[in-house]
Design a protein that fits this description.
alpha+beta, 8-stranded antiparallel beta sheet, 25 strands, 23% helix, globular
Length: 570
């Protein structure tokens, strides 16, 4: 018979605390060794926003302390972590990683605790941690599972040091998806129904048993970030399943998903043929375009977005286009900039911002359907509940479109009118090592290798990571006997460079020259993580020959750089 201690210790006095994660679903994505991992990033104000949303923290001095490791250590006494999983037996390691000054991922401290996923809280006392001298900022959380494909829920809270007061802890109530208030919230998302003829035709095809493909292109929200598990709980897959169940006759509705995290429509318009049309093998009937929270990074400020929309509408099979406007946790998106494109072309538009932001401003007892903490997984991405709401907003629009009588498709006429921002990149194409397009001469020089450490995304309904831009030019450093630059002669009107961003210290900056004129410095550390960065090199009214040269900036000659590809307009 098990016995407790003869003289149990008095319980530790609970300190004031606030949540940074409250009942958040996590998932052990499979690693090559069959263990699982869930990453949750804390840098770039993510931790501050988690404290605001999940912890109800409003004290700006406390929030600012979370920006640096130094401030974090002065504020936080201990980290409390609990994980609960169905069997209550899964072994989990919690890691709270500090990013370093010299090496972002390698020189900071790791605060760790091993636990069983049985719901019991485990504490990491910050005074017991052996700290690195190179700590810069709270960087990321990792839940490392002994097994893969484990679904669980986690709570993480910060216990405060003496002298700091925590706000009132607000516990969320279960979302009542059958309530009238919930349904009214969904209805508010219909920003514009527009001309529904193309949608109606696609729906009628599906009802008749004909093959119909619904496709999604966008950023990380379309990729599925925040959904647990991502392939089946993301809004895109859920919408496809609901559309198929409502309008399909079996397996006649097909699914294409092409979201790439951290990238704007500026990259989307380059990769559209590859990722949606699959180089001519797919003819989508409906394309949902979601870039409303990514296009702040579009240096054309709307031209690439409008070019992408027009590119899709101009396809020979005349697909329907739906504009979807997601939302960030600070109640923001770019629908005011991008919406005019939909108005001009009379397209269906769905705004998640219009649906949920009003809810976030209500308190418990004021008719609130859900809290901001419930909708968001982090400051950028929806939780499972958020992805479900996005799906239901889209499905409400589809149901309303299905009720409409046949009408004239005015799209072709509308596209002949003046553009809102421009359509310079409507016919842009991808050029890489596999397809050189209009290149007349190319010298790889030191850029002779192929980079395999690329941004990966989950395409369609598959969990596997698909590397982005695998046919690239990779410079590993100085190569004896090779020229120290990449140079090509190309004939086109406009050209974009796509290069790899990275947080690695061995990656350097590159100078880009067009016809011997310096046009920009490509800095892979600008965003600090592995993803694809498009930039405009030139945009001219006439098609003519240019010489493009890329070489490392002075002082970075021994460092790495990856040219992922180019987008060109002939």
């Amino acid at each position: 018979m098990n016995k407790g201690p003869v003289a149990p210790k008095d319980p530790t006095v609970k300190r004031p605390f606030f949540y940074i994660m409250q009942d958040k679903e996590i998932y052990g994505a499979k690693l090559p060794n069959n263990t699982g991992v869930q990453f949750i990033y804390q840098n770039d104000n993510r931790l501050i926003n988690s404290a605001r949303i999940a912890g109800n923290v409003t004290d700006e001095d406390m929030l600012q302390m979370l920006k640096t490791t130094e401030g974090f250590r002065k504020l936080v006494y201990a980290i409390g972590v609990s994980v609960v999983e169905e069997t209550a037996k899964e072994q989990v390691r919690f890691v709270y990683q500090m990013y370093g000054h010299k090496d972002t991922y390698g020189s900071g401290s790791n605060l760790t605790v091993d636990m069983v996923a049985d719901g019991m809280e485990n504490l990491i006392y910050l005074d017991d941690v052996v700290w690195s001298e190179d700590d810069k900022e709270p960087g990321q959380i990792r839940f490392e599972f002994a097994n893969s494909d484990v679904q669980a829920a986690a709570n993480v809270r910060f216990y405060l040091r003496d002298g700091f007061e925590a706000p009132e802890v607000i516990e969320d109530e279960e979302i009542d998806v059958e309530s009238q208030d919930y349904k009214k919230m969904i209805e508010k998302s219909l920003m514009q129904l527009g001309n529904t003829e193309r949608l109606r035709r696609a729906i009628e095809k599906a009802k008749k048993g004909e093959d119909v493909t619904i496709a999604f292109i966008g950023g990380s929200i379309t990729q599925g970030a925040g959904a647990i598990p991502l392939p089946t709980q993301c809004y895109a897959y859920r919408t496809y399943q609901s559309f198929k169940a409502l309008f399909g006759t079996g397996d006649n509705v097909h699914f294409v998903k092409a979201g790439v995290g951290g990238t704007p429509s500026q990259l989307g318009v380059i990769r559209f043929e590859r990722d949606i049309l699959r180089d001519g093998t797919v003819e989508p009937d409906i394309v949902v375009v979601e870039f409303a929270v990514n296009d702040e990074g579009d240096e054309t400020k709307g031209v690439c977005y409008e070019s992408l929309v027009r590119k899709i509408l101009a396809l020979p099979n005349e697909p329907a286009v739906v504009l979807l406007f997601a939302v960030f946790a600070y109640d923001w998106n770019l629908q005011d900039r991008l919406g005019p494109v939909g108005k001009k072309l009379d397209l269906p538009m769905v705004s998640v911002l219009d649906a949920v932001v009003e809810q976030f401003r209500l308190r418990k007892g004021e008719g609130r359907v859900l809290s901001k903490n419930q909708f968001f997984y982090d400051i950028y991405h929806p939780s499972n509940a958020g992805h479900r709401i996005m799906e239901e907003c889209l499905m409400y629009m589809f149901k309303e479109a299905a009720k409409q009588a046949p009408m004239a498709d005015e799209t072709a006429k509308l596209m002949e009118l003046d553009t809102v921002y421009g359509s310079v990149y409507e016919n842009i194409k991808l050029m890489d090592r596999k397809d050189l397009g209009p290149v007349l001469r190319l010298e790889e020089g030191c850029f002779e290798a192929t980079d395999a450490q690329l941004q990966g995304v989950e395409m369609d309904d598959k969990p596997d990571m698909v590397p982005q831009f695998p046919y690239n030019w990779y410079r590993t450093g100085v190569v004896e006997g090779k020229k120290d630059y990449f140079e090509m002669e190309i004939q086109c009107k406009a050209l974009m460079l796509v290069y790899k961003d990275s947080g690695a210290p061995n990656v350097g900056k590159a100078d880009v020259f067009v016809d011997s004129k310096h046009v920009l410095v490509a800095d892979p550390h600008k965003n600090g993580w592995v993803h694809c960065n498009p930039v405009i090199l030139f945009d001219e009214p006439e098609n003519r020959t240019h010489i493009v040269r890329i070489q490392m900036v002075q002082g970075d000659e021994d460092k790495e750089f990856t040219i992922l590809g180019f987008g060109y307009v002939e």
